[in-house]
Write the structure tokens for this entry.
Amino acid sequence: MSSLIIIFLCALFAFSLSAICGGGAGLLLMPILGALMPISQVPAALSIGTFSSSSSRIILFYKNIHWPIVKYFVPSALPAVWLGAYLLKFINPIYLEIIMGLFLISNIPLIFKAKKDIQQYQKPKNLSLCVIGFIAGALSGLTGAVGLLFNKFYLKFGLSNEEIIATRAANEVVLHLIKIILYVAFGLINKQVLTIGLLVALAAILSSFSMKYILHRLSIVSFKKIGYSAMVISGLIMLMQSGNSLLKLNRGEISSNIISKGLETKMQWQNANYAMEFTYDDGFEFEQVIPINELNNEQLASIKNQGIDSDKIIVEKVHTLNSQYFEAYYFKDQKLLKKVEFQ
């Protein structure tokens, strides 16, 4: 029950904030939902909420919809939604989230653009609308939410605050509906997804009614600045969440320790172990644990003829800026007896 309350409050905040940011509640919620439910179920739950949000925004801002954009965006996006939803069964969304996070963070320079530059806009070309629509549809089918990814697309076309909200909702409402149908057909919606999705939907609808009293109070420059800032913040959160998920998926672990005359950073990835070591005397060293059978006969003889009574030997391959060598660690009863360097 506590997790449902957290989801509702976070969704209410995210969709309320999206009214000021020009959208992107789904991307803001992805890391939160990803921490509370299986990552493969997040797109379906988000789609239920974002469909409700887009529907309520169309009702409130119907007269502000910029139809010339909608008529090229939607037809090209519809077939791509099916492609994205289908690929969700084969593609791990974690890797896609990392790419999306990096893209969102790349918008940092736009936050600091001068007022005269940020007010510049250009008329969208029909071909670019079709291409953007197709990409948005495919990514939307894969992730359930891509609003902030295409913030720049809406912000640079000279639309008013209300027009951005209304046009985005018109572009996305049919996509979200089709995604929900496809997720059901592909067996990606269960009781948990439905419960969380309806909870997010309730928060989205409540936030839509509050935005009508906020948008007209913001200048277009402030609206754009907040929108770009939201993109960067969402990207940082997404990278942290997807990075942690990727580490868990691959049994990864990163740690740093202060050693004599330097610093050592260790990383475990699946069954491999790596270390980066810096010392004041020797500089940088990159170390990788390798199977003992990768050594040649001469090297094997070298480490076995040390006369050390051990029950375990771990071999590391060490790379420095100017050379390469090996280290053998001798253990007995899980205690380190000796370290030997050899070529």
Q: What stands out?
A: Residues 14 and 332 are 55 Å apart (CA to CA). The two ends are 60 Å apart (CA to CA). The chain has two domains: 2-249, 253-342.
